[in-house]
Structures are given as C-alpha cells and as structure tokens.
Specification:
Strand 10 and strand 11 form a beta hairpin. This protein is α/β, with parallel strands linked by helices and 549 residues long. Helix content is 56%, strand content 19%. The strands form three sheets. The chain has a six-stranded antiparallel β-sheet with strand order 2-1-4-5-6-7. Strands 8-12-13-3-14-15 form a six-stranded mixed β-sheet. Among the domains are: 187 residues, P-loop containing nucleotide triphosphate hydrolases (Rossmann fold, 3-Layer(aba) Sandwich), CATH 3.40.50; 157 residues, no CATH class; 32 residues, no CATH class. The two termini are 28 Å apart.
C-alpha cells in the first residue's frame, strides 16, 4: 500500500508530505485547485516521462518520493534487479531544469523500465480518459483473461510463443547464411577438387622441380660426367700421373717430416680422385633420358604453379592450409544443412504445441464469457443500467499472436431491443465510465493490487447512480487501498479518509495545499460539493445524512 507521498517544488506545490492509510480515501477540491498536480506527481513515481516544465521556481530541481509497504512476495524482483529490499520501500524521482530525470528505488539508481516493472504491481490509476482502453482489443483480451482466471496459462503460452518466435527468427537468419554459403559451395568444391588433384600430402613439389631440372638437362649432364670420368681415368690422365708421382716418392728413402706430410696428403688426393672418377662414370651410366617422365613432371609442376598464382600463395604449405580451409567450409555447409533441418523440425514441433495451447486458451475463454457477462450485468444493473448488454464475441484466427489465436469483439448495447454493436461505436463517455467501473470491481477481486486510484471516474452521473457508485467504490476498498478524486458528495461521504486540495496565495505566488478533513470539516466539504460556495443549513444536514447512510 502507499504509505507516504512527499512532493517538493512540483508545479504549484512548494512542499507537502501526505500520510495515507488503508481503506477508502477521497480527494476533493474545486476545479483547478491542483488535484491533477497530485496525480501528475504520482505518475512520475509510476515511471511516466518527465517534463522539466513542472519544476517550480524555488529550486533548480523538483522531486517526488513515495513510500510503499510491501509484502515478501516482492523479494525476487529486488534480487533480480540487484536492489536492497525493505518492507518499507522508497521510490524517488528527481527532475532538474536541464531536463534530466533520475529514478531511485531504496536509494539505488534504476531505469524507468525497472521502475515501471515494480510500480505496475503496486498502483493502478484509472481516469475518465482511460475508458478509451475499453476500445483496445489487446486490453479487452487481457481483461477477459484476468476475469477468466487463465493468466497463468497465458503466461506459460507467452513464454513458449516467445521461444518459438526467437527460434523462428534464428531459423530465418541461419537459412539466409546457408543460402549464401550454397552460392559458394560448388565453387569451393571445385577449388577443393583442383587442390586434391595435386596430391599435396604425398608429393613434394620442390623435389619434383629438382627432378625435372635434372631430366631436362640429362644429355648435358651425361656428357659432363663422362668427360670428368675420362679426364681422371685416362692412361695419361690426372689419376695415372698422380699414381706415378706417388710411386716415385714412395721409392725415395729420404726421411723428412714435411715431405712425409705432403706424401700423406697426396695419398688422400689419389683416393678421392679415384672415387670422383668412379662416381662420375656411375652417374653418367645411370642418368635417365626419359621424355615421357619430363612431360609428366612438367604437367604436375605447371598445375602446381598455376594454383599458386590463382590463389596468390607462395608455397606448397600455404596451398595445404587453403585446402584445409576449403574442406572445412564444405563440411561446415553440410553440417549447417543438418542443423537447419533439425532447427526447422523444432520450430514445426513448437508451432504444433502452440496451436494446441492456443486452442485450450480459446476454449477456456469461450467457457468463461457467459459467467463474466452475467457478473458484469449484475453490477451494471445495480448502477442503473439494467438493460445494458456487454458481450464478448470470440472467434478463432489462423494466426498466432502473443495472446494465442483468439480475436475479440466487445459488443455493447445500453438499451433494450437494440442489437449490441462494437463498444467503440456504441457507448457514451458516462456509460463507458460505469462499464469500466464494473470491470474494475471484478478485476480488483482477481488481481490483488495494493492500491487503486480512480480519477473522476464518476463524471457525468448524479442522484441514485452516484449513490450506487459510491457504494461500489466503498466495497472495493475492502479488497485494496482505494483512492478517488471526485466531485460527487455521495462518493466523498463514503470515504474513510477525506483530503481537500486548495489554492492559496503565498506572497506573489499561487500555491496548492492539501488538508485532511475530519468531523465538521468533512461535513462542510460534502455540503460544498452539494450546494456550491454558499453552504446552507440544509446542505449541512444533507451532508450529515449522506455520511450516516
């Protein structure tokens, strides 16, 4: 419930602090006295957008602060939003002249979204202008679901619906990605096949290049090898001359360290030279002259170099990396196709489940509309609208929405014998107010909102209807803390607590003030509502009778 409201430098209000109690509180005052200012201040607490033009002249900012008494059931909200929880919770809005607004819950800065998430569960404001809600299809369906006690089922459906929509959106995104990949799949597969034909894992193209170079120069190499072997191995060649020299030196018995060292070196040269001659002759004998092999290796090397150039790579290793990337891309596309098929099956299964649940919601609504219409009719009859018909016409659509697949028409007729038509075309403002009041009465019994405020919901009625409205509001205050801003003496007389808003002069300024009324003050205010500024003894007597009855 709302325990305190503190307002500072807001429009015509310098500063007020109001303490509220449970039960039925009525706020009265002349037109223009500032009742709407109180409502505007409370709207800020409820998360409405701030307008810096409401800041009064006494400071560069204004603030509105409300203290609510909460139940433990709100603890989870505070934990989810990392806010300290207190049974006495203070909500504060500040606005400065730069147009900046700040919101706090228990001194923790919060966004307006978080603020609304809390206050929407604390206060429900309904004014004569809000009867336009009755013409909104979404509001009509929400109202029906509340009265039909299927909000929990609807919440479950909504969670599944949002999950299905998210998965459907994911499917569309992945489908676009997959189709984009498909455009490249054939080309990537073609490139992969080209690279696979090179046999990059088995062949070494640097060796192929060396082998080809050898084959292409085999004739010249063979000639060089033979020439080298013959030059060494000829009868009067290098090897023969060195053997003769070594023999002469070996026969000389002169011992000398330097000579012996040279002889050893000469012996090594002779052995190495012999080996060179034999290897050169062996190379020449084994050197292959193979034109077919040259053609084969040239083809392999040309294919390799072409792909190096095509893909702007510098080595065989870089081509192997590219081949692996292309292979992964092709495999990923196949995997994505499988995932898409699975995701599509899930979307279809969830859609089928939603169709079933939407059908259950629709049937529950159909079963509830009769008793709900009867309950509304009973209240409207008490409010002097006995011939009124308010019917919920439900049809089932093929399209799923956040509320299921029910389409609603709220049909209204205020007079006997008149066929009900859509309420937005049929009802007057006064009729809509009483219809809304009847609905709010039923809704208040379903939703345990701590605080309900009616802003001149009783406009345009008088006499016996005013008495009935007053009694109805009084009974509603047994279920919740109830506020009513009114001009009806009948409503004011039913209140447990009465407050009056007045304008007064303070120096050069006009300000609004709020006073609590009790005893004769309450009687006098109700008499004023009945007779105007000239309060007669008869009006006083009638006011007392209203309060007693």
């Amino acid at each position: 419930m709302l325990a305190f409201l503190r307002i500072s430098n807001f429009a015509l209000i310098d500063y007020i602090e109001l303490e509220f109690k449970n039960g039925f509180t009525v706020i009265t005052g002349e037109t223009g006295s500032g009742k709407s200012i109180l409502l505007g201040a409370l709207d800020l607490i409820l998360g409405e957008r701030a307008d810096f033009s409401v800041i009064g002249p006494d400071s560069s900012k204004c603030y509105v602060e409300a203290e609510f008494q909460l139940a433990d059931t709100f603890l989870s909200f505070f934990e989810e939003n990392d806010i300290d929880f207190n049974l006495s919770t203070i909500i504060r809005r500040e606005i400065n002249t730069q147009g900046k607004s700040r919101a706090f819950i228990n001194d923790t800065p919060v966004s307006l979204q978080v603020l609304r998430g809390l206050t929407s569960q604390l206060v429900n404001i309904h004014s004569q202008y809000n009867t336009l809600e009755l013409k909104d299809k979404s509001y009509q369906l929400d109202m029906l679901d509340c009265l039909a006690d299927i909000e929990c089922d609807k919440t479950t459906y909504l969670g599944l619906f949002n999950q299905w929509k998210s998965k459907q959106q994911l499917l569309l995104v992945q489908q676009e990605t997959y189709e984009e990949r498909l455009k490249w799949l054939d080309y990537n597969q073609f490139q992969l096949n080209e690279l696979a034909e090179l046999n990059l894992e088995q062949l070494d193209f640097s060796q192929i290049e060396n082998e080809l170079h050898t084959l292409e120069n085999s004739e010249s190499l063979k000639s060089n090898f033979y020439h080298l072997a013959q030059t060494i191995q000829a009868e009067s060649g290098i090897y023969s001359n060195l053997i003769s020299l070594k023999s002469v030196l070996d026969k000389n018995n002169v011992s000398n360290a330097n000579l012996n060292a040279l002889k050893d070196r000469l012996a090594s040269i002779v052995l190495e030279l012999k080996d060179i001659g034999e290897e050169a002759e062996n190379f020449a004998d084994n050197l292959e002259m193979n034109p077919d092999k040259i053609i084969q290796l040239t083809g392999q090397l040309d294919a390799f170099n072409r792909l190096l150039s095509k893909h702007q790579k510098q080595s065989q290793e870089e081509l192997k990396i590219l081949m692996n990337e292309l292979s992964n891309s092709v495999d990923d596309t196949d995997l994505m196709r499988e995932e898409l098929e699975q995701l599509n099956r899930e979307v279809e299964q969830e859609y089928d489940e939603l169709i079933i649940r939407a059908g259950i919601l629709h049937n529950n609504r159909l079963n509830a509309v009769g008793p709900i219409s009867n309950a509304i009719q009973a209240i409207l009859t008490d409010l002097k609208m006995p011939d009124t018909l308010l019917l919920f016409q439900l049809t089932q659509s093929e399209n799923l929405t956040v509320s299921g697949n029910t389409e609603i028409q709220l049909l209204f007729s205020a007079n006997k014998g008149i066929t009900p038509i859509s309420i937005e075309k049929a009802a007057s403002g006064g009729e809509l107010s009483r219809v809304m009041l009847a609905l709010q009465k039923l809704i208040s019994e379903k939703r345990q909102l701590p605080t309900i405020l009616f802003d001149e919901i009783d406009t345009g009625v008088s006499g016996e209807v005013a008495h009935k409205i007053a009694s109805l509001l009084g009974s509603m205050s047994n279920e919740a803390q109830l506020f009513a801003i009114t001009h009806l003496p009948q409503v004011a007389a039913k209140a447990n607590h009465n407050a009056k808003v007045e304008k007064m002069q303070k120096g050069e300024r006009t300000i609004s003030k709020v006073e609590w009324l009790a005893g004769e003050e309450k009687v006098t205010e109700i008499a004023r509502l009945m007779s105007g500024e000239i309060i007669t003894p008869a009006a006083i007597e009638n006011a007392r009778n209203l309060i007693l009855n």
